[in-house]
Amino acid sequence: MLTGAITSLRDLGRGAPRDGERFADRRDAGRRLAPLTERFRAEQPIVVGMARGGVPVAAEVADALGAPLDVVLVRKIGAPDEPEFAIGALAEAGIRVIADDVVGALGIRSEELDALVARQQRELDARLARYRGDAPPLPVTGRTVLLVDDGLATGRSARAAARSLRARGAGRIVLAVPVAAREPLTELRDVVDEVVCVEAPADLWAVGAWYRDFRPTSDEQVIALLQARRAARTPAQRDVAIETGLRALLPGDLALPAAPCGIVAFAHGSGSSRHSPRNRSVARALNDAGIATLLFDLLTPAEEADRDNVFDIGLLAARLLAANRFLHEQDATRDLPLGYFGASTGAAAALVAAAEAGTGVRAVVSRGGRPDLAARRLPDVVAATLLIVGGDDRGVLDLNRQALARMRCVRDLAIVPGATHLFEEPGALSEVARLAVDWFVRHLDER
What we know:
Layout: E1 7-10, H1 26-37, E2 46-51, H2 54-65, E3 69-73, E4 75-78, E5 86-91, E6 95-98, H3 100-106, H4 110-132, E7 144-148, H5 156-167, E8 172-179, H6 182-187, E9 194-199, H7 219-232, E10 236-243, E11 249-256, E12 263-267, H8 277-288, E13 292-296, H9 301-304, H10 307-310, H11 313-329, E14 338-343, H12 345-357, E15 363-367, E16 384-390, H13 394-406, E17 411-416, H14 428-444
Parallel strand pairs: 1-9, 2-3, 2-7, 7-8, 8-9, 12-13, 12-14, 14-15, 15-16, 16-17
Antiparallel strand pairs: 4-5, 5-6, 10-11, 11-13
Helix pairs in contact: 1-2, 2-7, 4-7, 8-14, 11-12
């Protein structure tokens, strides 16, 4: 996969680094690495730091490029009697890299290896939850990802991290490191597309030898760096009012990240509103991915008093089309590709409105939706549509399968195992957010 030559500022000969060649610390290493990544700016990359030591380096690269920052965690699998001796590594997306020859030479039994893997998997999951909190990982589907670490010695951790990113759908992976041994650079060509590094000595000695300050990075430092970059990308919030055409105004909340790649209007289900905590959770994930969002009430308080209106799909669809007109009239949103996110009856309204709008709506995501209520218009939908249903929401799952068969557009059905209609189970709503982000990132900006 390595399509181009390895880019290095200098290709040093043998010998320990001279003091002038050493990095002051990881921040200095990131600042010296950043210029080599400048040529990727036009690809709007996502910068992913390898926890823990790679995150301070990655933060400097992300700041220089104005790019979002995320983290990937690789856990070393140590030998039973010598935990510091690595026999493999784990990463997100179920990636395992095991040195089978070493495992065989040490006589490690399969059940013993399984126990070692399970222990490190628990630690990996716990640390990722601590680093990210409630935020899902940034979507990498089809994107250029700069994978950053503080140095490369054997390349095993970088291999696991790259495979994890590839499993999550990364389009292009560029490994960016301040210093690396030469041999693993070439050995990684099967899992990364390109490598950039500042120093490429023939004899690395040790990564720490290339730093004057190589103190360990703490979990607290990683969390602080991620939170600071997330806060810097917090979208601008606006209170808006949408004209329905009946002299009634519908209140809404418009969130605009810096340089958004699209906008998603939300259509809530019966008995809900723009304040729905589930929709707001998904909206935050979209904002983190650089997608603007509009949450608004589909009915006035007087209209809500008539329960027939709550299930009037044609009326709700008309309100979404009014939101379309509103967004096309605003300077900040008129040129943004548009998508819909609908829940329950709101999903039916989103599909009807998408059929009416034609190519004016690029993508639709339905969460626990009732597409059967839009049955007549399903063949007319041209927007790429993802139907998300809980695995234990069996009646609605059957309705979504039937709807999928009636549609002609690009479409898919995603089932969240163990989830019921409201996705209240642990991790279920985070999975909905991840699926929605990936779908919108993939389809909103299609030409």
